[in-house]
Amino acid sequence: MASPSFNRNPLYRQVADFLREELARDRRPGERLESEERLAERFSVSLITIREALRLLAGEGVIERRHGKGTFVAERDRERDQDRWSAVLIERDIAHPHASFFHMRVAQEVRRILEEQDRPVKLYIGRLRPGEKQDGLTCREFLTDLSEDRISGVVAIDVLQEPSWIDQMRRLRLPLVATNGAQYGHILKLDRERLVREGVESLVEGGRRKLAMIGWDEEEITSSLQIPSYRVLFRKALEEHGLPVDESRIRTDLHPAYPGGGWEQFRELWAVRSGRPDGLLVCDDLLFRDAATAILDLGVKVPGELMVASHANRNSGIFCPFPVEKFEVDPDQTARALVEILLKAKSGDGPDSSHRFLPMSRVPASPVVKLREQNDE
Questions:
Q1: Which of 10, 171, 205, 363 is a good FRET partner for 321, with 20 to 30 A between their CA atoms?
Q2: DSSP per-residue string spanning 169-214
Q3: Residue 97's pLDDT band (boundaries 50, 70, 90)?
Q4: Rounded to the nearest 5 degrees, what angle is found at the Cα of 161, between the Cα atoms of 159 and 162?
Q5: Architecture of the CATH domain 79-188+334-357
Q6: What number does CATH give the domain 11-73?
């Protein structure tokens, strides 16, 4: 960055004038400044001059000196802060009968946590139907408030990043925490690789060798989010265990919101009697719900004929009528993580962007259910 244009004012005032303009134009409230040494080097002045300039700006309320932490751009004045809030943005129509429990729960829990901390927050809901492709944000109220500088930070849940609003976020230097995206902000996403790897491991440990998978992939989304497809990950996991890859046992073509999608996919897997799988990994809890219905309809014995492992969301209310090895994500824990990242980003404590995975735990199939089935047999 260029040095200040010097004049007859004292050198420390010239540096302060330049920094004052730069901070107002390019830095967000709460953002940490470079160290005194770096500033002195950038402006080619002494440490004493930099300290005088910073002391002047601190006295004006432009910056804050925090002992042991550094120098930060001062937060906005309280009167203005009262008119700004954290946005919780969910693009999907939560009233749709196939709306995701996980996304709805996370959105509501993020709002609840912020409200309990007496932090201004507003929930924005779009009208995008589950499975419908996104072509710009459908929540116009969010775009209006964003353009009018009413928003201080955003938690975006299942929202693809696209220029209509991401460019504005960049210009305003607003913190973004999202469960989707790859271009801007802090991303908290499902660890697909771990889900598939450990899911296959659990089936192999159960003595299964003819494995099948039900999931959902869309090339447009996996490429834009820079995430591997379930199909690729499943092939890789099978090869690592020396198991054959049978493409007819990999189903990733139906969106979880498609009525009966998991039901149709499992029926197709079970239709070929000679190639029936003995182990099944389901990578979505909604697909599992439908697949479980098909398993019951067809009278498949679990775990006798078929062992099942599945992604799951804690407290989703989806009933497991047979023993299932679960790889469970807790939406409440996810919401707490999103809020924690957002508040740190607002305070300038931490990097401008980061990629983290949703907390996930392996829940073994209930031994009580297994014992009951064995007794029935």
A1: 205
A2: HHHHT--EEESS-SSSSEEEE--HHHHHHHHHHHHHHTT--SEEEE
A3: confident
A4: 125
A5: 3-Layer(aba) Sandwich (3.40)
A6: 1.10.10.10
